[in-house]
Amino acid sequence: MRARPAVRLLRLGRLPYAESLAAQERCVGRQRAAGPGPGPGAAGWLLLSEPAGPVYTRGLRAGPDPAGEERRLRALGAEFRRAARGGLLTFHGPGQLLAYPVLDLRRLGLSLRAYVGALEAAALGLCRRLGLPAARALPPPYTGVWLRGRKLCAVGVHCGRHITSHGLALNCCTDLTWFDHIVPCGLEGMGVTSLSEELQRHVTVDEITEPFLDAFEEVFQCILTSHEESMG
């Protein structure tokens, strides 16, 4: 039986989105430096965070007037960031779990398509644990996790030289009105939802973190090892 790879878990807590991106880039650099050979913990990292404030992010695709769009969204009182991930506009903010795996797909034996499916499966595993069996992953272009035509969890990834970055954003108790100002992920006519809305109670990021980690380990067949050291 093949040993389950170890993945380092880094809990960043609530912090500005730019800081979580910087931590992610440091992990990407460390993972690339590790090379493709075997070694303890070499499969990668899983970074968890909750944005400290509202921020809109644009992926590698841009709309017809990106500069005007950025000005309009900043005027709402949110930050605006460009992110090296697939997709168009989305929103990140307090009450949202960001799970950014930095993984060497060669070590896990996964194609990029299978990796995206595994991220969706981890979010679906969490939903089952919370009593939301109706949650579904839909065929392309509808990436992420959906409930009754509304997106609960967005997935947007980047992969360079077999190393992944970015990942998923799961709405726990997010203020969904921020999504009213954009077409989330460029999908017209599709709404958004949150765990709090679906379960009809206040669901925090802290509450769902451990069941999400259980689902992640189950889907990726890995062992998460906690690392709390500074990433500076």
Automatic annotation (TrEMBL):
It holds the Pfam family LplA-B_cat. The keyword Repeat does not apply. Its main location: mitochondrion. SUPFAM superfamilies: Class II aaRS and biotin synthetases. The record marks K151 as: Lowers pKa of active site Cys. Keywords: Acyltransferase, Mitochondrion, Transferase. GO terms for biological process: positive regulation of oxygen metabolic process; protein lipoylation. GO terms for cellular component: mitochondrion. The keyword Magnesium does not apply. Residues 40-224 form the BPL/LPL catalytic domain. Its EC number is 2.3.1.181. Substrate binds at R85, G86, G87, L88, L89, T90, F91, H92, A154, V155, G156, G167, L168, A169. Pathway: Protein modification; protein lipoylation via endogenous pathway; protein N(6)-(lipoyl)lysine from octanoyl-[acyl-carrier-protein]: step 1/2. PROSITE patterns: BPL_LPL_CATALYTIC (PS51733), LIPB (PS01313). The active site is at C185 (acyl-thioester intermediate). It is found in: Mitochondrion. Belongs to the LipB family. Catalyzes the transfer of endogenously produced octanoic acid from octanoyl-acyl-carrier-protein onto the lipoyl domains of lipoate-dependent enzymes. Lipoyl-ACP can also act as a substrate although octanoyl-ACP is likely to be the physiological substrate. PANTHER family: LIPOYLTRANSFERASE 2, MITOCHONDRIAL-RELATED, OCTANOYLTRANSFERASE. This is Octanoyl-[acyl-carrier-protein]:protein N-octanoyltransferase LIPT2, mitochondrial. It comes from Gopherus evgoodei.
